[in-house]
Amino acid sequence: MATARTTTSPREVAAGSSGPMVRIENVHKRFGALEVLKGVNLDVQSGEVVCIIGPSGSGKTTLLRCINFLETYDEGRIYVDNELVGYAERNGRLVPAREKEIARIRAETAMVFQQFNLFPHMTALRNVAFGPVKVRGVPKEQAEQRARELLARVGLAEKADAYPGQLSGGQQQRVAIARALAMEPKVMLFDEVTSALDPELVGEVLAVMQDLAASHGVTMIVVTHEMMFAREAADRVVFMDGGVVVEHGPPDQVIGAPRSERLRTFLRRFTTA
Fold first, then answer.
1. Statement: residue 39 has pLDDT above 50
2. How far is it, in rounded angstroms, from Cα 88 to Cα 37?
3. Residue 131 has what pLDDT?
4. Which of 176, 185, 218, 260 has the smallest number of CB atoms closer than 10 Å to its CB?
5. DSSP annotation string for 111-161
6. Mean pLDDT, to the nearest integer, of 231-244?
7. Beta partners for 78?
8. How far apart are CA 52 and CA 36, in angstroms?
C-alpha cells in the first residue's frame, strides 16, 4: 500500500521554513518475520505539532523510537534537521554511524516515555540539570538555574528539592518533560506520556504539553490516545494502522471528518460510552 507524504502546515508556511525538521522516507522496520513499519513517509516542519494516533500494534511507538534511534530501521532514511539518523551514506548504501554520532543526533531528539525514568536518588532539580551538565558540558550553576526555570514552567518550582518518590505520577512526568526541555532539543518526542497515570493526573500533564504546543517554538511529535488534546493542540494528525500512514491532515479533517472506514471505526471507541 502506498503512503502519501504529509502536507506542509500553515505554521510552516507562515514561518517560511526552508525544509522539514524531521523527514521520514519509506521507512521499514522488522522484528524477525514481523514487519511493523511498512514504508512510512512523513515530514514534520520546524515548530510544528504532529499527533500520531492509531490502534495498538500500528507502529506508532516503533516509529518514534526509530526517529530517536532507540530502534534501528531496516530500510529507508530518517533525517533530523537534514542529518541522517543512525547511519552514514557511502556510495549510495547505508552503513551504521559511529556511536558518537548517534549520541550527538539523539541528543537533538529528546524523548518523554510512558514511564518517567527519573533517577530515584536525585532531586527533581538534579534530574533536570543532569543532562546538560553531563552531555552538553553546561556549567553546573548555569544548568541548575535553567532547571529551576523549567520546573517553574511546568508548575513545579516548589518541588525542586523533592525526590521522585515524594512526587505524584503527574508531577514525575512533568519533571521528565522539564528534563527533556533542558537539553534544548530540536524535536520533542512524546510516547503515550499519560497512559501510565491515574485519570485524575492526566489533565496536569496535558496542560503542560498544550502550553508547549501553543508556544510555537517546540517541534513536537506526540503519540497519543487523547483525542481532545490532538484536536486542540496539533497542527496535523496522522492516523497509522498496520504499519502505514492511512490518513493525515488538520485535526478537524482527520478527527472531525475521517475519510476511511478504518479511521471511523477507530474513532468510534472514543465517542461511545
1. yes
2. 21
3. 95
4. 260
5. EE-SS----TTS-HHHHHHHHHHHTT---HHHHHHHHHHHHHHTT-GGGTT
6. 97
7. 24
8. 15
Task: Give per-residue pLDDT as tens, 77-117.
Answer: 999 999 999 999 888 888 999 999 999 999 999 999 999 99
Kind and range of the H or E run holding 20: strand 20-31
The pLDDT value given to residue 11 = 45
Q: What is the DSSP annotation of 52-94?
A: EE--TTSSHHHHHHHHTTSS--SEEEEEETTEESSEEEETTEE
Cα gap 212→180, rounded to integer Å: 12
User: Hunting for cell 552538553 — which residue is that?
Assistant: 136
**207-236 residue pLDDT tens:** 999 999 998 788 999 999 999 999 999 999
Burial 35-68 (b: 16+ CB within 10 A, else e): ebbbbbbbbbbbbbbbbbbbeeebbbbbbbbbbb
Distance CA(1)–CA(217), nearest Å, equals 34
Dist. CA 236–CA 215, nearest whole Å: 16
| pTM for this prediction | 0.91
Q: Are 206 and 172 in contact (CB under 8 A)?
A: no
Q: Rounded mean pLDDT of the chain?
A: 91
Three cell numbers, residue 242: 498496520
Whether the predicted pLDDT of 165 surpasses 60:
yes
Distance of alpha carbon 133 from alpha carbon 140, whole angstroms: 6
Cell of 268: 468510534
